[in-house]
Amino acid sequence: MKSFIRSFVITLTLFLMTVGHAQFWNYKKVTGNGNLTTKTIKTPTYDYIKSVGFMDVKLIQGNEGEITVKTDENLQEWIEIKVKKTPWFWTSKTT
What we know:
single chain, alpha+beta, three-stranded mixed beta sheet, 1 helix
């Protein structure tokens, strides 16, 4: 009985590890090219900011309705800024 339980636990562990790892097979990683660019985007007024994804957001006091994005030039196409009613969303496009 002990060997059955041990085999079952090992099999279950391997199965869960495989399923967990399989979710990342189709994930594409984009790396910056080192050429820093700045892009200014006009937005309507908003009350707060929500960032979706893994990114650093630095807020600097300035004119509301104007967002400046500084990042590597090949990453600019992956940045998406939307205003939905009141909140402002900062997201990265999915692949």
